[in-house]
Amino acid sequence: MLVKLKVFRFDPSKDKEPYYQSFEVEADPMERLLDCLNRIRWEQDPTLSFRWSCGHGVCGSDGMRINGICGLPCQKLVRDFKEEVLIEPLPVFKVIKDLVVDLAPFFERYRSIKPYLITKTSPPEQERIQSPEKQHLFEEAVRCILCACCTASCPINQNKETEAYVGPAALVRAFRYLFDSRDEASEERIALLDHKDGAWGCQTLWKCTEVCPKEIPVTKQIGQMKKRIYEAKHKR
Amino acid sequence: MIYNHDIIIVGSGLAGLRAAVECADQTNVAVVSKVFPTRSHSGAAQGGITAPLGNEEEDHWEWYFFDTVKGSDYLGDQDAIEILVKDAPRAIYELEHMGVPFSRTPEGKIAQRNFGGHTRDYGKGPVKRACYAADHTGRVVLDTLYDQCLLHQVKFYSECYVLSLVFEKGRCAGVVIYDLATGELNLLQSKAILLATGGCGKIYKTTSNSNATTGEMFDLVYQQGIPLEDMEFVQFHPTGLYPLGILVSEAARGEGGILRNKLGERFMERYAPTVKDLAARDVVSRAILTEVREGRGIDGKDYIHLDLTHLGKEKISERLWEIASFVRIYLGIDPAHEPIPVQTTCHYIMGGIPSDVNGRVLADAKGSIVPGLYAAGECACVSVHGANRLGCNSLLDLLVFGRRSGMAMKEEIAQLEPPSLKKDSLKPAEEKLTQLLKQRGREKIDPIGKRMQGVMMEYGSVFRNEEGLKRGIEEIRSLRDRYRNIEVMNKGKGFNFELMEAMELGHQLFLSEVVLLSALHRKESRGAHFREDFPQRADGDYLKHTLIFQTPKGPEVRYKPVKITRFKPEARIY
Questions:
Q1: Of A91, A107, A199, B573, which one is least surrounded by beta carbons within 10 A?
Q2: Alpha helix (H) ranges present in B461-538?
């Protein structure tokens, strides 16, 4: 079938303003939108830039905005699009070229939540014991592939006044460690999260949950984190 | 610009990151990667990491040792395999201590599952040896190691492509990198360089490998006169999702999944009576293609069914969530109710850059060392996988030999002065790049690349024969002639993926020839290398490693002996 795509273009080395360019490619209905983008690049316009690698929603490289909704073109099948498909870079981040955005601030914030297990006691010789129930508490959160779709979709992150908000992706990783029974730094983590640009930056708008390509219940997890912070403070 | 480091690691998968974590606190280490580190292909590993922990049932390192040797069709070096299997529990506990979210047994220990070729008591039946985190084991280990690198302040050069290795007085002393974001070249110099760049699945059309898994590093090394070892041994995973070739982990069969042909028969009973669907991958892939050849593929096509319908929704969603999601997204199928169409898919290269058990790259059959250069992980050939790798042995290989390389580099560089490369070292790479951008020609990259992938599928995949291999080599050589006539249309500096693909393709065309030539010279069938014209294993002639060298006269094939310490070759029946 013939697929029509309208693609955001911007090369700062020569374009004053971004513009949109329309392409038509032949594709099998079961092919991915990613295949169409590659076909454009290989057969029509080799200057089109976008990131991709695994092609099946595991590496997190190809986050972009598809018909206004952030997602991965490697997870979208051609058959689900009847009209022209609008392809744009992830919002919130600075565009470097075409669909490639600068994710450095995203990873900076990710880093700020201390995304590693912190322990004070030395581990046993073998594995630490953790019940399946305790492991299940954060099992969904470890599916995160850092594609940045959630953060790019969050209205709080999109708003200039609240853009310092650490964002849902960083919070999912914070949740993953806060709720890991092996971690021994809850106080430190709670202090990191307990402010207006931390967990409280979330206004429960559910956009992150709607777009997450790995179906992580992001909003629910941030809510659980807020509850944990609240309870910790009221115990004292 | 010239940047100085003590150690440079090329590749940010598990081998590279594990090595980086090992060195980071005492040395100035930098990791170079074509992609952002968490995008590395190790993250696509699903099923698990093997270690004889015995958490679910009795297991012993000796059983594991035997399975790995037998899985390798006796081509694995047994001294290296012994190191691997004995170090496995330590490697797993270390990951757990770093925070890897392993799935758990009811008692809270690391959960383990069955995997192909892993058996109890020297082949009597399957054993639960694969430690797993649902079916995203690679993902969570990669994340954990990346997070450890953040903790240890490792320097990353992300989205940088290596153009050349730089040598100073016979010692590897640096790399020239091309920064994808800016199009600029930089020279990184260091006392030691570790290559941890993964495999080369992208030389085949159907592959589970990611777009970045192009394999140029093999050729960069080969063009330096350093040999490549056992490159004919390319693993085709039995279960790639049809038609994309995306990995459907062996964990699906480890959890009880069954392969069925169009008659609904559990055909593996005929090929591997003892362990059936849990035989080694080469055996299962050949069985699938034999069914297809004999007309028992589904709808007469080249795929069969992986049946998980008897496992139940709960088990699938708890242990095989990712797989179920791929099947749903790409085929609209719920694996709890319908079988999954699967085909064999290029997955892993057993061969690679010859290296010793401490990652040191070896220059010849005698074992002379290439000073300053190390290799670990899929790009290296230690050889622990021999002619066929067992499932879940790769992640372990990455962790064990990544760490050992890190330790060896740390020790070696303590006594070394830093190299003193001049900016001239950039020149050859710079000129090559300028030439590539300047050159006019009639050919485009994409059709040549597609044809190469087709040739490799046709002549260099699961079944091979002399006539096909010769034809394949001829075709690859004529593609190389066409390649000389390519024109890169995109002259831009920022994120010029066409330019990167052009460079990759140049290397892949040499690499493809290396694979086919190594296969042509091995006139026997062993592990993943099956010759229709020589269907038997021939220990008398070929119980030895292939070494292929680039010489002024062209490629030259030599051999070196296999290290056999404990298990003498036997018939390989599952």
A1: B573
A2: 466-483, 497-521
Q: So what's the ipTM on this one?
A: 0.97
Rg of chain A taking only CA atoms, in angstroms = 20
> In this structure, what DSSP letter does residue B560 have?
E
Q: Are A75 and B329 within 8 A, CB to CB?
A: yes
Residue B203 carries which DSSP code? G
Pairwise CA distance, residues B222 & A32, whole Å: 36
Q: A104-235 belongs to which CATH class?
A: mainly alpha
Per-residue pLDDT for chain A (236 aa), expressed as one digit of tens each? 999 999 999 999 999 999 999 999 999 999 999 999 999 999 999 999 999 999 999 999 999 999 999 999 999 999 999 999 999 999 999 999 999 999 999 999 999 999 999 999 999 999 999 999 999 999 999 999 999 999 999 999 999 999 899 999 999 999 999 999 999 999 999 999 999 999 999 999 999 999 999 999 999 999 999 999 999 988 76
3-state secondary structure at position B33? strand
Minimal C-alpha gap between A183 and chain B (Å): 8
Task: Please give the Cα distance from A11 to B448 (Å, whole number).
Answer: 28
Backbone angles phi, psi at B543, to 5 degrees: -80, 70
Task: Decide: residue B474, CB within 10 A, 0-12 exposed, 13-18 middle, 19+ buried.
Answer: middle
- The alpha-carbon gap from A36 to the nearest alpha carbon of chain B, in Å, equals 14
B281 is catalytic: yes
